[in-house]
Amino acid sequence: MPTYEYQCPQCKFRFEIKLKFSDNNSPVFCTRCGAKAERLFSPVPIIFKGSGFYVTDNRREEKEAPGKGKARTGNKGESEGDSR
């Protein structure tokens, strides 16, 4: 059975309930104050297994970022005195 997370809009209490898929649309009430609770979205954890998911697997060499490295000043082949 899946576990769903709910929050009460009145007392802001958060709680989890296991429900059958057939009970998914039935209303759930707060376990503290009895008000109708709202279901929260909870992202599912993802686990990657196998090769290709680690930082060291199939890693390309990092390219030099633009702006880093040797600075260019002026155009190649022209000096400050040349103005044609």
Mean pLDDT score, rounded? 77
Strand residue content: 5-15%
Radius of gyration based on Cα positions: 30 Å
Q: Stretches where pLDDT falls below 50 for ≥5 residues?
A: none
How widely separated are the two ends?
81 Å
Described by strand count, sense and barrel closure, the largest sheet is: 3 strands, antiparallel
Query: Overall 3D geometry?
Result: elongated
Task: Give the spatial strand order of the biggest sheet.
Answer: 2-1-3
Q: Approximately how much helix is present in the residues?
A: under 10%
Based on helices, strands and strand pairing, what is the structural class?
Answer: mainly beta
Number of helices: 0
State the order of secondary-structure elements, H for helix, E for strand. EEE
What's the number of extended β-strand segments? 3
Pfam families: Zn_ribbon_8
Organism: marine sediment metagenome
InterPro entries: Regulatory_FmdB_Zinc_ribbon
Protein name: Putative regulatory protein FmdB zinc ribbon domain-containing protein
Topology, please?
Layout lengths: L2 E5 L6 E5 L19 E2 L45
Antiparallel strand pairs: 1-2, 1-3
What does this 3D model show about the protein?
Residues 58-84 are annotated as: Disordered. Residues 58-67, 75-84 have a biased composition (Basic and acidic residues). InterPro entries: Regulatory_FmdB_Zinc_ribbon. Pfam families: Zn_ribbon_8. This is Putative regulatory protein FmdB zinc ribbon domain-containing protein. This protein is an all-beta fold. The chain has a domain at 3-39. It has no helices and 3 strands. Strands 2-1-3 form a 3-stranded antiparallel beta sheet, with no helix packed on it. It is elongated, with a radius of gyration of 30 Å. The model has no long low-confidence stretch (mean pLDDT 77).
